């Protein structure tokens, strides 16, 4: 596969796809090693991951450089790399505290029986990840799965594959890890082969792909942990601090060029502060600088050319239906890269794609509301339920409004706090995903099945216990 460079538009990297046979072989190899991995004490698995942490540090700058080409973002690439170092450390600390199958105990319902409860990890977990935060989303589920004792077959996105070269070197430097963690290179076909080979799937990506993978997993009776798209609403109540609201919303909506699942993608502002809000956020949006010179600026190009087309289509659809363009508005080709300046749209409504479909770009459509009830109805008028934000100086009221929003995580007086907070459990609502939280303790505990060994300490009942004669 020829891979496009998002900064230059040039197809300058060749991805050699794994064949079906190669993927099957990797899965078999992991299975043959996983039993020993599972049998190790968790503290020994922690020791292996700590070795990986050391080797990851050795290759850290190589991985960051490759990731910076994949995503055309230098600073965020470095943040992703240090985020992974932090995640390995955090799970190495937390997982042994959580791994606590209870000691043998008598049953309450059958008091002659003793219960020996075991936690059995899924043998082989498939991780399939997207292109927007390629390293972080490849490893966010991989790390706790490995610590739980699972083997992992990991297929990152084919759109941003360069970082896999450095990542693989860091894995290969830890012989105890190479048997239970293998990378798969390729696109949808390779992803399908992964799904066919594993005992559980952790998928991060779009709703349409998640739906397909979920259907295959249902067919195969394996769990699918699906982390999908969003159309996060931000609500600005009339008592909100406008500086805080405009700063938080702008950063959340256009940071990483809006290519984050938890970007704020539609904003509802109380009518009494609407004009002030629009004026202020427009001024701040105009001040955002592009990284056309990679050494300076705040916002990079769009990573995926097909996404750029969708973004332009949504802007055009909104304008054609009566939206007013306040800033930005056009995907521009600059030296081969596709760029979109922060785009603010007003006079929008829910008949427009930009208010209903995931945009995944730096677009801020803004609507006004009169009552809080109306704001909540608008926020919930979506097929998505990933996350949201509420801005208010009255925290109790903000919490009251937040509690009524159908989404897994609500940030108060900031946007996208889920990209900072890893220890709060959150489930996706509606089409944004399904199954156990990847954040918080469930992020580790969901990789175990519970198995009961039941020991009868009295004589077993006999068939005479079912004898009808003489029964009153
Ligand atoms: P995508 O669904 O197109 O692809 C994701 C991955 O699935 C890629 O690795 C791809 O090769 C693979 N794939 C494609 N078809 C497949 C199939 N039939 N079977 C198996 N694998 C298949 O998503 P994308 O465009 O890479 O990523 C953007 C999407 O990811 C957005 O919708 C975004 O909101 C979502 N996302 C969600 C979260 C979250 O935590 N909820 C985080 C980041 C991104």
SSE topology sketch:
Blueprint: E1 2-4, E2 11-14, H1 20-39, H2 42-71, H3 74-98, E3 105-106, E4 113-121, E5 124-128, H4 134-139, H5 142-148, E6 151-155, H6 163-172, H7 175-178, E7 181-183, H8 188-197, E8 200-204, H9 207-220, E9 224-227, E10 232-236, H10 242-254, E11 264-270, H11 271-286, H12 305-320, E12 324-327, E13 331-334, E14 337-340, E15 343-346, H13 353-356, E16 363-369, H14 372-380, E17 384-385, E18 387-391, H15 395-403, E19 409-412, E20 429-430, E21 433-434, H16 442-445, E22 448-456
Parallel strand pairs: 5-6, 5-8, 6-7, 8-9, 10-11, 10-18, 11-16, 15-16, 18-19
Antiparallel strand pairs: 1-2, 3-4, 4-22, 9-21, 12-15, 13-14, 17-20
Strand order of the largest sheet: 12-15-16-11-10-18-19
Tell me roughly what share of residues is in helical segments: 40-55%
Oligomeric state, counting identical vs distinct chains: single chain
Number of E-type strands: 22
Overall outline: globular
**pLDDT averaged over residues:** 98
Number of helices: 16
Describe what you observe in this structure.
There is one protein chain. The protein has 472 residues and is of the alpha/beta class. It is built from 16 helices and 22 strands. The protein has helices spanning 20-39, 42-71, 74-98, 134-139, 142-148, 163-172, 175-178, 188-197, 207-220, 242-254, 271-286, 305-320, 353-356, 372-380, 395-403, 442-445; strands spanning 2-4, 11-14, 105-106, 113-121, 124-128, 151-155, 181-183, 200-204, 224-227, 232-236, 264-270, 324-327, 331-334, 337-340, 343-346, 363-369, 384-385, 387-391, 409-412, 429-430, 433-434, 448-456. The strands form 6 sheets. A 7-stranded mixed β-sheet has the order 12-15-16-11-10-18-19, sandwiched between helices. A 6-stranded mixed β-sheet has the order 7-6-5-8-9-21, with helices on both faces. α1 (20-39) crosses α8 (188-197), α2 (42-71) packs antiparallel against α3 and α10 (242-254) packs across α11 (271-286). The longest helix has 30 residues, at 42-71. 48% of the residues are buried. The chain binds nicotinamide-adenine-dinucleotide. Nicotinamide-adenine-dinucleotide (NAD) is lined by residues 128-132, 137, 155, 157-158, 187-188, 191-192, 195, 204-206, 209, 212-213, 227-230, 261, 358, 360, 386, 433. Nicotinamide-adenine-dinucleotide (NAD) binds at residues 128-132, 137, 155, 157-158, 187-188, 191-192, 195, 204-206, 209, 212-213, 227-230, 261, 358, 360, 386, 433.
């Amino acid at each position: 596969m020829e891979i496009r460079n998002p900064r230059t538009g040039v197809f300058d990297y060749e991805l050699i796809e794994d064949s079906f046979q190669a993927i099957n072989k990797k899965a078999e190899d992991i299975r043959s090693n996983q039993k020993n991995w599972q049998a190790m004490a968790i503290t020994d698995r922690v020791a292996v991951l700590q070795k990986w942490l050391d080797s990851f540090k050795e290759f850290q700058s190589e991985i960051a450089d490759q990731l910076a080409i994949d995503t055309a973002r230098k600073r965020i690439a470095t943040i992703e790399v240090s985020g992974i170092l932090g995640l390995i450390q955090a799970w190495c600390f937390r997982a042994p505290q959580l791994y606590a199958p209870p000691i043998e105990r008598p049953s309450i319902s059958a008091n002659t029986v003793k219960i020996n409860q075991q936690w059995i990890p899924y043998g082989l977990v498939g991780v399939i990840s997207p292109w927007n935060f390629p390293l972080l989303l490849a490893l966010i589920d991989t790390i706790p799965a490995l610590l739980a004792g699972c083997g992992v077959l990991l297929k990152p996105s084919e759109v941003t594959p360069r970082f896999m070269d450095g990542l693989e070197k860091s894995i290969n430097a830890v012989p105890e890890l190479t048997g239970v963690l293998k990378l798969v290179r390729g696109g949808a076909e390779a992803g399908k082969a992964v799904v066919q080979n594993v005992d559980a799937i952790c998928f991060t990506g779009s709703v349409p792909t998640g739906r397909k993978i979920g259907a295959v997993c249902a067919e195969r009776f394996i769990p699918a942990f699906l982390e999908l798209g969003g159309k996060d609403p931000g609500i600005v109540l009339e008592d909100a601090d406008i500086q805080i609201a405009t700063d938080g919303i702008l950063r959340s909506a256009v940071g990483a060029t809006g290519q984050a699942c938890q970007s704020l993608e539609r904003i509802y502002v109380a009518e009494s502060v609407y004009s002030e809000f629009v004026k202020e956020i427009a001024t701040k949006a105009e001040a955002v600088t592009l990284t056309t010179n990679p050494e300076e600026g705040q916002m990079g190009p769009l990573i995926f050319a097909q996404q750029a087309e969708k973004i332009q289509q949504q802007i055009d659809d909104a304008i054609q239906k009566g939206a007013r363009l306040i800033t930005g508005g056009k995907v521009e080709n600059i030296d081969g890269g596709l760029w979109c300046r922060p785009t603010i749209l007003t006079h929008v409504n829910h008949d427009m794609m930009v208010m209903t479909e995931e945009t995944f770009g730096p677009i801020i459509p803004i609507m006004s509301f009169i009552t809080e009830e109306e704001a909540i109805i608008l926020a919930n008028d979506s097929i998505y339920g990933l996350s949201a934000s509420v801005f208010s100086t009255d925290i109790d009221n903000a919490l009251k409004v937040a509690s009524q929003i159908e989404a897994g995580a609500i940030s108060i007086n900031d946007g996208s706090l889920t990209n900072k907070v890893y220890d709060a459990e959150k489930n996706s609502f509606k089409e944004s995903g399904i199954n156990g939280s990847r954040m918080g303790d469930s992020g580790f505990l969901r990789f175990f099945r519970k198995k009961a060994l039941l020991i009868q300490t009295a004589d077993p009942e006999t068939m005479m216990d079912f004898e009808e004669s003489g029964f009153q």
